[in-house]
Amino acid sequence: MTHTHQAMFLASAPAFLTTHLIMIHDRK
Prior knowledge:
Keywords: Membrane, Transmembrane, Transmembrane helix. By secondary structure, the protein is mainly α. It has 1 helix and no strands. The chain is rod-shaped, with a radius of gyration of 12 Å. It starts with a helix and ends with a helix.
């Protein structure tokens, strides 16, 4: 894994989890 690829993964992971949590909350 290259440094750029790792940085993109670390940057996108929190956004993905946040979006997933928002979707779960909106579903209630």
